[in-house]
Amino acid sequence: MQLINVRLYFCLLALVAVTHITGRVAFAADTNSPERPNIVLFIADDMAWNDAEPYGHPHIRTPNLSKLADGGVTFDNAFLTVSSCSPTRCSLITGRYPHSTGAPNLHEPLPADQHLFPEDLKKAGYFTGACGKWHLGPHARRGFSKIDPNLHAWQQFLEERPAESPFFFWIATTDPHRPYQPDTINQPHTADDAVVPPYLIDNEETRQDFAEYYDEIGRLDEEVGQIYATLEKQGLLENTLFVFISDNGRPFPRCKGTIYDTGIKTPLICHWPAKIKAGERSKALLSTVDLAPTFLKVAGVEQGETFQGEDFNDVLESPETSHREYVYAERNWHNFDFWGRGVRSMKFKYIHNNYPENYDTPPADAVRSPSFQALVSAHAKGTLEPQQKFAFVHPRAVEELYDIVNDPYEFHNLATDLAYQDELENMRTQLADWREQTQDPDTRTPIPNDFDATTGERTRPTPTSGK
């Protein structure tokens, strides 16, 4: 007994020494804590930030997202680093901006040298599982204990995981990505439910396009409900951080692929009964590049030097806390060649278009949509409203500045308005500083387009990387 006490004494002395030297408790003490939460990251595919009940949509039925929001905190100012499927995923899993991941363009696989936050969780004793849409390439697979393309594989993961281990699940649905199918949910939305923004033409075809998009959000909501109910039934919900986001804006013209809020603003709901007060709302400005360090923080895992985001655990504890003054986003190749950068504050948005001679063509699936074809037809007839001409302007402005508070649709470019030159210069400076800090290249080789900009028909072979 005395020998055991002596060993315990020296172990405690060593722990105190490590704490004194490093200013934190030893790594092993953190990872063995019984308080480490499970983490579920649910990623929607092409869902706008405000197309759900918690964000005030009057007609889309998302009772399970509402349940998640009612039991947690809903963020009103969360932003993506890019409005494109695979670059968003590569940014999320590395905690880095797309140009820093080595995979900034659509369908590019994540390079082998990139550090992944699920790797850190896995090494710290977490069971890590990924199911549903992948789109990251082969090298990211090393971050997970199990990977399954079946969206519902999270159920199997729960059965297979070691009972004593916390888990991290990366659950990526393909809803509400195009193409749409009939009878997606039992009670389909109708054309009358559509809320058509002013940059699109409000006709029956566009409204039906929205109704089918809403149905896929309804199906997505059902999956969220199944996960929630299963965690609750198994007694896991209390200490699970359940996070819901989207990878980019809705797959409609002037949304997905752009740096406008319709492209980069994301729903973000965090539910964690053990730590987060129910029914909270936060106006804090957040970036999805902040998720990786936040997950590591709540798991008691030290954040490495590769991460470019900022942990927002303090906002989870106190939603009224501010977090960032600026968020940053980029626009890269997505079916068509673009190269642009943007910075946003709570009041202003600044966009710099490096390829202003390129038309503002939406992604190919949106080009083929009834919503875009209605714009093409009206353009040919000369009947488009000014805010509906965005895809046909040539050349585009090199600089764009918007007062987000008074112009939420970003219709009125203030970059040449003398009254806003101070703000323009400030936002230019903020963007330039960020680009320097993150080593964003000054030059880039143009990439050929894959599709026809009017019909959406493929003009180059289908890429196979990044799947």
UniProtKB/TrEMBL annotation:
Alphabetic keyword roster? Calcium, Hydrolase, Metal-binding, Signal
- Please name the Gene3D superfamilies in this protein's record: Alkaline Phosphatase, subunit A
> Where in this protein does the record put region Disordered?
435-467
Q: Please give the Gene Ontology molecular function terms for this protein.
A: arylsulfatase activity; metal ion binding
What positions does the domain Sulfatase N-terminal occupy? 37-144, 151-301
Q: Which InterPro entries match?
A: Alkaline_phosphatase_core_sf, Sulfatase, Sulfatase_CS, Sulfatase_N
Is the keyword Zinc assigned to this protein? no
EC number(s)? 3.1.6.1
Q: What EC class does the entry list?
A: hydrolase
- The residue range of the signal peptide is 1-28
Which PANTHER family does the annotation name? ARYLSULFATASE FAMILY MEMBER (PTHR42693), ENDO-4-O-SULFATASE (PTHR42693:SF53)
Family membership: Belongs to the sulfatase family.
Query: What name has this protein been given in UniProt?
Result: Arylsulfatase
Q: What is the lineage of its organism?
A: Bacteria, Pseudomonadati, Planctomycetota, Planctomycetia, Planctomycetales
